[in-house]
Write a structure and sequence with these properties.
By secondary structure, the chain is of the alpha+beta class. The chain contains 16 helices and 16 strands. It has two domains: 242 residues, BirA Bifunctional Protein, domain 2; 94 residues, Rossmann fold, CATH 3.40.50.800. An eight-stranded mixed beta sheet has the order 1-5-6-11-10-9-7-8. Strands 13-12-14-15-16 form a five-stranded mixed beta sheet, with helices on both faces. It has a three-stranded antiparallel beta sheet with strand order 2-4-3. A hairpin with a 5-residue loop joins strand 15 and strand 16.
Length: 419
């Protein structure tokens, strides 16, 4: 038997209804915040991610799916989408269009990680990017947008963590201090962090190895190395979040796993996800566009929500079947009734009614199927009903049955629902 590749999965009904619900709610939230959809290819030149994400990050050095195309070009399935969005921004000269560019995306990403609860090798992200402003007001609005999406989807009890990782000058001073502090203790770290202590000390702070925690807590805080501009920017972001009534916790060691972040970084956690409890993460990336070849500065900030984790968080509290209800199950009795039922179903579907037509000749079995499908109503069609133009409409929840004319089926169903 051929099975799905490890780290991938099939999303089946009724779970797919929850995914559709999340994406519908998300799209509406993006609409009211004036964000517009961008769709980028799922594979790009490998150089884009090496330069954009950072060659020394775990994503680029260990987790990407990369191969040589027939012309020798190195190609990679996208492990994240911010670099792709900025590439499109530069390529299509969006910087020449006046105003802030507010873009969103929904789609699959690919990383060869160890599969576990909420973490897959093909996973889905909901993301937003606001490009063209370095204002702290945009940072606060982007964080508000992320929280609003989660709240509208039904996530409760989440925690917002925020930090500033400074500008390149502040980061370099902090990186030097970290490397110096780690030098005498690096041999006590996990193997991955022994390497990071030399190549990219900031990544040590992002360690998920519990054995490294005792050392990490002794390391200096980046807040000691922020210059005045970065301090002022971060203070203003906090003021704007306070004005919105947003609760947050400042985490000085929150650096995120990508090299392009500058100044504001943030994560949103949810306890229902266990150890892998981050459902959203993001930050500012001033300078990313220039590193990818733009001649025009394009400061930006964005986030990505792990859609797999978001669905896990809310799925148990939702009735998936109710998100994609079957309105009407038609049970035709006889061959002529089957033809009539097909025509009637077409008419009702054009009116927006979700209809299923039975292929079972026996009424009892047809109604049993209607129950299994959680149909709201069933409609019995026999020769007498067709001749009279009046049908037996049955409420499957209450068992109540009444006769309705062909033109009154929709109003009878909707009228009962509104009552």
């Amino acid at each position: 038997m051929i099975k799905a590749i490890r780290g991938t999965r099939d999303i089946l009904p009724p779970s797919s209804a929850v995914w559709n619900h999340v994406e519908s709610v998300t799209r509406e939230t993006f609409r009211v915040f004036n964000y517009h959809e961008i769709r980028t290819p799922i594979f790009e030149e490998t150089t884009l991610f090496a330069r954009g994400v950072g060659a020394e990050t775990d994503i680029v050095s260990k987790e990407m799916y990369t191969w040589d195309d027939r012309d020798g070009t190195s190609i990679t399935l996208r492990p994240e989408n911010t670099a792709s969005v900025i590439r499109a921004y530069i390529e299509h000269r969006l910087d020449q269009i006046t105003g802030l560019k507010k873009l969103f995306y929904i789609g699959p990403m690919f990383r060869r990680e160890r599969p576990q609860k909420g973490r897959y090798r093909q996973f889905f992200q909901i993301g937003a990017e606001a490009i063209g402003s370095d204002s702290p007001a945009i940072d606060a609005e982007v964080i508000e947008l992320a929280l609003e999406i989660l709240e509208r989807c039904g996530v409760t009890g989440s925690r917002l963590l925020i930090n500033s990782v400074g500008d390149p000058e502040s980061r370099q001073r902090y990186t030097d201090a970290l490397r110096e502090a780690l030098e005498p203790v690096k041999d006590q770290l996990s193997p991955d962090n022994q390497r990071r202590a030399v190549t990219n000390p900031l990544r040590v702070l992002d360690s998920k190895d519990p054995g490294d925690e005792a050392i990490i807590t002794t390391l200096p805080s980046i807040h000691e190395f922020l210059n005045e501009e970065c301090r002022t920017h971060f203070a203003r972001v906090r003021e704007l979040l306070d004005a919105r009534g947003v609760d947050y916790e400042v985490r000085p060691r929150l650096v995120r796993g990508l090299d392009y972040y500058t100044k504001t970084t943030f994560e949103i956690l949810h306890g229902a996800l266990g150890a892998q409890n981050a459902v959203c993460g993001g930050g500012r990336y001033d300078g990313l566009a220039e590193s990818l070849g733009s001649r025009v500065p394009a400061p930006g900030i964005g986030f990505s929500i792990g859609e797999d984790r978001l669905v896990m968080t809310i799925e148990e509290s939702l009735n998936a079947a109710a998100l994609a209800p079957l309105d009407l199950f038609i049970a035709p009795l006889g061959a002529d009734a089957g033809v009539h039922a097909a025509l009637l179903a077409s008419e009702l579907r054009r009116a927006g009614v979700v209809v299923e037509v039975s292929t079972d000749a026996k009424l009892k079995r047809a109604l049993e199927t209607a129950n299994k499908l959680n149909a709201r109503y069933s409609l019995i069609l026999g020769d007498n009903e067709i001749a009279a133009g009046v049908y037996a409409l049955k409420n499957m929840a209450t068992g109540e049955q009444k006769n309705v004319a062909r033109g009154g089926i929709v109003s009878a169903m909707r009228g009962e629902s509104d009552a």
